[in-house]
Structures are given as structure tokens and as C-alpha cells.
Amino acid sequence: MTFSTRSRATVAVAAALGVFAVAACQSEEAPGADPTTAALVTSDLAAQSQAPAAPAPVGPTRRISLDDLGYDHGDPNAPVQLIEFSDFGCGYCRRFHEEIWPVLEEEYVATGKVYWKYMPMVLGIFPNATEAAQAGECAGEQGSFREMQDRLFADQSVWKRSDDPMADLTAMAEDLDLDVERWRRCIANGVRDDRIAAGTQLSQQAGVRGTPTFFVLGYAPIPGALPLELFREVLDTAHAAALRGDGPSQGPGGP
Fold first, then answer.
1. Chain centroid to CA 94: how far?
2. Global pTM?
3. Highest mean pLDDT among 30-39, 133-142, 209-218
4. Per-residue model confidence (pLDDT) at position 132
């Protein structure tokens, strides 16, 4: 299932983004975008509530599907579906999480307009970012990903500069009242490493070159942390198009 229809809404979103200077943490090693894979990323997101998503390969034999990855916010049947790729080491991701995301969550996710999947990944350009991703995932194993996510961004300057990041991350786990021994074992044994690797691989296949990058179902990816008003314009346009049935084709066998 692919998305190639160029609707009026698509043109409107593109026009809105045309004046925006990208605010994203960039990787020079990421491949260019593969339009087919990018379309599959968003089509898999849309299909989660209807059928098993197409799996993303991890390693030579194991495969993990998109609906096994990331952290979901909102109604899976919301008119607008979005996936965010984010690196805990990225300053623009921190700024988005602290300044923009709370407003968008209240206005679009909590109101049932947007289903938002947060996908942790590692660009490979920030110190200690892999350890931070492990800390987040292993907190997630105990149902506390969001609390750890908040701390990782809030204390980003601390653990990024640390010569002993695990000491700083462990202090966060203790502050959050996690089962610290279980959390340590999760990290030491790589219990959740497949999730990090799969999210990172999926981002590479989709052509993500910087973070944050956002895929709104059926539209071109948004590379960078948009200003709040521009993000509102994009989501309002996509939402209105979905309600009119004027959005990009979403069904099997579409153009």
C-alpha cells in the first residue's frame, strides 16, 4: 500500500513547510529518503488498528513489526496518524519535547484528532545517546518510559557530558522509584536493544537524516522541529483533509 495521490491538502502542507528553515540535529551518514519506504512507514502506522503491520527486519533472522515499537499516544483510529523519530541526545528534540509537544498533545492528541507514535532511535552522533536510549527502554519495561523520557531531556546536558553516564542514568532511575536492579539487568543483558536497533534501522530505511523527523500519514516527512504555529497549520490542514476525505489515498489498491 503506497501513497502517491497529490491532493490539495498535500499542496497546502508543502506550501506551509516551504518557508521553514530546518531545525534538526543532522547526520551526514544517513542515506537519502526512499519514497517507497517512507510511504510504508506511514502506511504501517495507519494499518495498526486494522491488520498486522509489515515487519521491520532486525539482524539476519529476527523481525519486529512497527506496532511492537515506539510509544503510542492517543486514539489509534484518530483521523491523523503521525510517527516521530527522535534521539535523546538531540538538542532540537529536547526543545520540541519541552516546548511544543505538551501543547500539541493537549490540542490534538487528547482531543482525538491525532494518533502520535514516538519512536526512539540513535543517530550515532551524540555522546552517550545509546546508553540514554537503553535507560528509556528499560524504564519502559516497567511502565515508566514517559517519566524517564522527561528526565532524559531535562538532564540532557548532564548525561551527555558525563564520563560515567550510567551513574547519572542510575540516579534518574532511583529518583523515579524504578526497580533499579531489574532496570540494571535489562540494560546489561540488552533486553530491549532490539527495539532501539529496529527503530534506528526503520529511520534509516525511511531516509531520516536528522531528528526530530515527523511522518504524517500520506504526506512528505517533516524534517525538523517546526515552530508551534506552523505545526498547528500542518496538523489542522491534515485533519480537515481527513474529515473531507480529501487527504492522500490511504486504502489498499490506491494510486
1. 13
2. 0.78
3. 133-142
4. 98
Tell me the domain boundaries of the chain. 8-244
DSSP 60-93: TTEEEEGGGSSEEES-TT-SEEEEEEE-TT-HHH
CB distance 234 to 242 below 8 Å: no
The helix or strand, by DSSP H or E, that contains position 116, with its residue range, turns out to be strand 114-120
Query: Is the bond preceding residue 31 a cis peptide, omega within 30 degrees?
Result: no
CB contact set of 120 (below 8 Å; sequence gap of 6+): 70, 71, 86, 87, 88, 133, 136, 137, 195, 196, 199
CATH code: domain 8-244 is: 3.40.30.10
Provide mean pLDDT across the span 205-217: 93
Determine the Cα–Cα distance for residues 127 and 50; give it in Å rounded to an integer: 39
Residues 150-168: pLDDT tens digits? 999 999 999 999 999 999 9
Nearest alpha-carbon partner for 234 in 223, 45, 73, 245: 223
Does the pLDDT of residue 52 top 60, yes or no?
A: no
